[in-house]
Specification:
alpha+beta; Immunoglobulin-like; Purple Acid Phosphatase, chain A, domain 2; seven-stranded antiparallel beta sheet; seven-stranded mixed beta sheet; 10 helices; 30% strand
Length: 534
């Protein structure tokens, strides 16, 4: 699925200070492309004439920061199927006066007139500004980030992570808050869009959903300011997607995702990849959907009210079956190889859904096992939640590998549940002697679906939180069933601090507050809960 774009790129020649005045850049670009007079004649910061259509209805995005490159993206509103010449430029300054890279690319109808440009030849560990132009009309100016060099020792990585941005009666105020966090990038863990299970089938259907979601102005403002690192979940396909889905529909959904994200497509439609932040951190971005075995359906309920999975009864006894996978063998081998390399102090696993156990009832406690040595291992009444609990053989295998290889400081950033959780992970979470091998922080949703206060009183939700804390002790350190928002992680050589930001998504003027702070010290397994800010 590589894109056969016609690209012309202009870069400053050696010995010129690595920048070009914008006028010179446009003059050289005009010579290289045989024209573009309208673009060359447009002054910096030109705007579309009154009443003119916006050529960039979906906004702009940058993403996947690497030491000497990054990716920029937009979509052109084209009135016909004809190709559209688009000028892109990257500069050192917000006024776009000192251009360091730029060129033209054709937006083609076969790609929905979206364009993804891999900008190369940049300096490591710095911010740049970029924009696009069509026929003299510029987009807004955005920011892109390059990562530190792989051999460098950066003092800090600061990133936000989030997911689940439905279009409901709630507002995208969490997005505005993320734009003000001063993060190096946003890790979006999927459910960026929500398609119709029965109505989003064809490529045009999927493109239409993406364009609807992209129309939100607060979303566009955030993307212009904050680089994006993205994976998908099931909202981009349909509920419960796995490897057994209709191949034509899956191909349409994958193609629409690549057309809409600042992630260069590849021949394998592969999204799992890693990003290095010098010797400080390496992020392993997982695809938990494309290769996975089907989820295990619910077979019980909790208190007669909520769907649940009882591992004593079929089919949920298969949650422990050897060989069941959410990663697939190739991706699992890739992840284990990357973890074993120990290229950075902090390995960070980005999983679209939660990795740690989540039970209503624990039926494998030390006291119960002492009474019955033949008790079902890790048995219990589990939350009906598509997640790693359905693939316990693979989770145990991965955690045993981390323990055996002595891979320290493993963090997990996850989402999907719409609830905040902080949990320690070990090979056997019902064995008190099992070592802590990873530390997971699961973020809430960016919008409400629906407002939890319409489902149950707050005191009942807090009662449920207490039940979860008891059934998942001692590894679960925090659970919040009420709030929406996102999380922010600060990583230094000495520690990683995760803060849960919550925000009232039904208040257009809402500001975030911190409701959960946690620390993991380098070389010290375990999550330490810190006091919230006063």
């Amino acid at each position: 699925m590589k894109r056969p774009f016609h690209v012309v790129e202009i870069a400053p020649p050696p010995g010129t200070g690595r920048t070009l005045p914008r006028r010179e850049f446009l003059r050289l670009l005009g010579l290289a492309t045989g024209g573009l007079a309208a673009v060359a004649a447009a002054p910096a910061g030109a705007v579309a004439p009154a009443g003119a259509a916006n050529p960039f209805p979906d906004g702009i995005k940058s993403g996947d920061p690497r030491p000497r490159r990054a990716t920029i993206w937009t979509r052109i509103a084209a009135p016909s199927a004809d190709p559209v010449d688009v000028v892109w430029s990257v500069a050192e300054d917000a006024g776009m006066s000192n251009v360091v890279r730029g060129g033209t690319v054709q937006a083609l109808a076969e790609h929905g007139h979206s364009i993804t440009v891999k900008v190369q030849g940049l300096d490591p560990d710095r911010w740049y500004h970029y924009r696009f132009e069509v026929a003299g009309t510029p987009s807004v100016t955005g920011r892109l980030r390059t990562a530190p060099g792989e051999a460098s020792s950066p003092a800090r990585l600061r990133y936000a992570f989030a997911s689940c941005q439905q279009r409901t009666k709630s507002f995208y105020v969490a997005h505005r808050a993320i734009a003000e966090e001063g993060v190096d990038f946003l890790l979006h863990l999927g459910d960026y869009v929500y398609v119709s299970d029965g109505g989003t089938i064809t490529l045009d259907d999927y493109r239409s959903v993406w364009r609807t979601f992209h129309s939100n102005p607060l979303l566009q403002d955030m993307h212009a300011q904050v680089p994006l690192v993205a994976v998908w979940d099931d909202g981009e396909f349909y509920n419960g997607v796995d490897r057994t889905g209709d191949p034509v529909r899956l191909a349409a959904a994958r193609r629409a995702w690549f057309e809409a994200m600042p992630v260069p497509a590849n021949d394998e439609d592969r999204t799992y990849r890693s990003l290095r932040w010098g010797t400080l951190a390496e992020m392993f971005l997982l695809d938990t959907r494309q290769y996975r075995d089907p989820a295990i359906p619910s077979n019980s309920s909790f208190a007669g009210l909520i769907d649940a999975k009882d591992t004593l009864l079929p089919p949920c006894d298969q949650m422990f079956a050897p060989g069941r996978t959410t990663l697939g063998q190739a991706q699992r081998s890739w992840l284990k190889k990357g973890l074993a390399a120990r290229a950075a102090t902090w390995p960070i696993i980005a999983s679209s859904y939660d990795m740690s156990p989540w039970k209503f009832e624990d039926r494998d406690t030390p006291a119960l096992r002492e009474q019955d040595p033949g008790l079902q291992r890790n048995g219990g009444l589990y939350v009906s939640n598509e997640a790693w609990d359905d693939y316990q053989w693979e989770r145990r295998k991965l955690m045993k590998f981390i323990a055996r290889r002595g891979v320290p400081n493993v963090l997990v950033s996850s989402a999907h549940t719409h609830f905040y959780r902080a949990s320690e992970i070990m090979p056997d979470f019902d064995d008190p002697t099992s070592p802590v091998t990873a530390h997971e922080f699961n973020t809430g949703s960016l919008t409400a679906d629906p407002d939890p206060r319409e489902i149950a009183p707050e005191d009942l939700l807090h009662t449920a939180e207490a039940i979860f804390m008891g059934a998942n002790a001692p590894y679960m350190k925090h659970v919040d069933l009420l709030n929406q928002g996102y999380a922010v992680v600060d990583v230094t050589p000495e520690e990683a601090i995760c803060e849960f930001r919550v925000i009232d998504t039904y208040d257009e003027s809402a500001q975030p507050r911190t409701f959960g702070r946690f620390r993991v010290r380098a070389g010290v397994p375990g999550i330490e809960k810190l006091p919230d800010p006063a």
